[in-house]
Amino acid sequence: MTQSLDHIETLIFDFDGTVANTLRLGVKISNGLSTKYHYKKINNANELALYRSLPTQQALKAIGISLIKLPLVAAGFRKKLSLQIKELEPIKGISEVLRSLSKNYKIGIVTSNSKNNTMTFMEQHKLVDHVHYYSTGIGLFKKQANIKYLIKKNSLDPSKTLLIGDETRDIEAAKKCNLPIVSVSWGFHTTDILEEYKPDFMVHHPDELLQLLTR
User: What pLDDT digit, counting tens, does each position of 37-69 carry?
Assistant: First the structure.
């Protein structure tokens, strides 16, 4: 974790759990869809803690969402979220950090959430002018392909690009793209499981991103 970030020019953020505080609302929506798609509800804090301690694919298996069923569940989730998007708040402190970082870095967002949900959220929290690149509506396990597409489409230098995310699959995508990654502990996955996947950096509050990336 002694890697220098002085050369970084572009920051690619995950959206759900990293920028948007989707955990509480996400559990509510997921439970509402569970009967239709025949998977388990998250009934209490202990069950949620268990799923948060598992890698993404194992968490989906434990709750009963197969990879075949996943696209239907994801589409249903995005549709329900669009009806409640005004309830969604940013992670405390992340808005100020994004505005500050955008003064010195190009900012991108790569997310499996829909373009409409992402842009509505960014507009209502006055963050649109601080993000330069978007890749939205991607498959849950196709993030690395979309990161590479975002980099190529916008003629970015991958050797000067950093990924920031809250899940183990973000770490996996970063490694497949040969990008350094900062894992954040305020999203879906717990610190313990994130550390097992060996991110380059770990932060526990948005302000730590400023400390890490101050030029």
Answer: 999 999 999 999 999 999 988 999 999 999 889
Supply the DSSP symbol for 91: P
Q: How far apart are CA 201 and CA 213, in angstroms?
A: 11
Apex 169 CA angle, 166 and 175, nearest 5: 105
Residues contacting residue 101 through CB under 8 Å, at least 6 positions apart:
11, 107, 209, 210, 213
CA atoms within 13 A on the CB side of 45: 0
d(CA 172, CA 96): 28
DSSP letter (8 states) at residue 104: T
Cβ 20 vs Cβ 112: under 8 Å: no
The contacts of residue 133 (CB under 8 Å, 6+ apart) are 10, 12, 106, 107, 108, 109, 150, 153, 154, 156
Q: Measured between alpha carbons, how far is residue 30 from residues 22, 34, 69, 96, 120 in Å?
A: 11, 6, 14, 29, 21
Using DSSP's 3-state secondary structure scheme, residue 69 falls into coil
Q: Do residues 136 and 113 lie in contact, with contact meaning Cβ atoms separated by under 8 Å? A: yes
| pTM of this structure | 0.92
- What percentage of the chain's residues is helix, strand, coil (to nearest 5)? 50, 15, 40
- Helix runs in the chain, H state only: 23-37, 45-52, 56-63, 70-83, 94-101, 115-124, 143-153, 168-176, 191-196, 206-213
